[in-house]
Fold this sequence. Notes:
By secondary structure, the chain is α/β, with parallel strands linked by helices. The protein has 2 domains: 5-118 and 300-328, Medium-chain alcohol dehydrogenases, catalytic domain (Quinone Oxidoreductase, Chain A, domain 1), CATH 3.90.180; 132-270, NAD(P)-binding Rossmann-like Domain (Rossmann fold, 3-Layer(aba) Sandwich), CATH 3.40.50.720. It contains 9 helices and 15 strands. The protein has helices at 47-53, 124-144, 163-174, 189-193, 202-205, 227-235, 259-264, 278-289, 309-317; strands spanning 5-15, 18-27, 36-44, 70-78, 88-92, 107-110, 116-117, 155-158, 179-183, 198-201, 218-223, 237-245, 267-270, 301-305, 324-328. The strands form 3 sheets. Strands 3, 4, 5, 6, 7, 14 and 15 form a 7-stranded mixed beta sheet that branches. A 6-stranded parallel beta sheet has the order 10-9-8-11-12-13, sandwiched between helices. Strands 1-2 form a two-stranded antiparallel ribbon.
Amino acid sequence: MDNFSYKALIVEEPEKNKFIRQIKNANINNLPDGDVLIRVNYSSLNYKDALSATGNRGVTRQYPHTPGIDAAGIVEESRVDTVKKGEKVIVTSYDLGMNTAGGFGQYIRVPGDWVVKLPDGLSLKQSMIFGTAGFTAGMSIFKLTRTIGPEHGDILVTGATGGVGSLAAGMLSHLGYSVTAVSGKTDTTLLNKLGVKNIIARNDFLENTKPPILKAQWAGVIDMVGGEILATAIKSTKPDGVVTCCGNVASPDLPINVFPFILRGISLLGIDSQHCPMKLRSKVWEKLATDWKFDMLESIYDEIFLDQLNDKIERILKGELKGRTLVNLN
């Protein structure tokens, strides 16, 4: 497929620290070396994509660049036996969309060991409604549900109207857990649709944060914002409860002491979806295609095309988006 051109969102730096985004023709020969060439059907918009698209050097070092940490599509060429031409596949995490041309282009080329075969029970479109956000939520649920069942009490989900939070809330409700959500948004329609039982406004949740330990309320917590919200959630978790941590949009700092851990035996479990081993990665995707796939999945996304990405990137940076944003590259 030499000299083949395709459409991609390309972020360029015409002047130092000045970045522009345009939909342009890219040449397939300029893709990085890799074992598998994939025609991308769908991607999704994540906060990390928005950072890459605005020149954040902590995410992307070199420009021009095509962001998109999620991609699902069909294999066009393969140099490895584990991946066959014509197979439907998913690629998320690793370096995709960070320093490797990502899913906001109609083609990607990646190492073979980044590729997950699309599990039965999921369409390519559904896999990107989940995307990295759903995979991260799935990893959190995988760790939490090993010791915490619905009978143990309420599960708190923070940042619940975002991508990870809304998918975690939907999956937990589907599995029979009673979910309480913390959100800074006043519109609770999405959370009600997902089966969330109680909703706490972010300001109310942070009203009393100074004591070293708070009234025990949650059997478990899925947190994706960090900072004071995560600290307050830990302080108010029941004895032997489990708290998962996968984000730092509020703050990377954790203002807390050891009391919840040594007086209540709280477990704080980190979630690293980027470098998750393939055996666990495949297991989580199988769960997303079967036991964790909830009825409202296809009602919590907004579908857009490449030429609509710029507006969505600005809005996700301002915290204005709810649910998932699916990018159709067909």
